[in-house]
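ingest -> validate -> predict -> emit
validate: passed (alphabet ok, no gaps, 166 aa)
predict: started
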Amino acid sequence: AAQDDPDQASRPRSFQPRSGRVTYGGSFGFGIGSDGWGASLRGELGYLATDRLWVGASGRFQWSHDEWYGDSYDAFDYGVGAWGRYFVFDRVFASTEWDWTSYEVPTSPSTSGRESFSSLLVGAGYGQPLGSRSVFLVEVLCDVTGNVNGVYGTPWVTRLSFATGF
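emit:
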């Protein structure tokens, strides 16, 4: 087949949705530490614009329980984003994502307020096929806007996620 189509050798073979170019997927997370724990859910809807360019939108919800300041505190955070992944090699991709996050902060022992910030994440990843229509993604991204004191206290984001196609 590669001899019949000269571009076939350079196209990523890692992900072929069923009948269209629309994809869906996401990830979930759970963390536990000495002063708290939390859980998160992230969903994404994507579109394979070309054989190499994958674009989409995401939504996220996170709950955390914190006992850092002595009193127990529960926070509910949420956010949305838009992303793009360009497959440089068969399964290796460059990634960029704009992300907006609204997070809850304690203002007193019994009240809380909300703050928000935007980030521009840039990085790379790897897509491991799981059959012909699903892919497991590993991404490492860095916030280039300087929001190092964001929700996680670091500019680095590591993400493991899953996607499949319609």
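The first strand starts at residue 22 and ends at 33.
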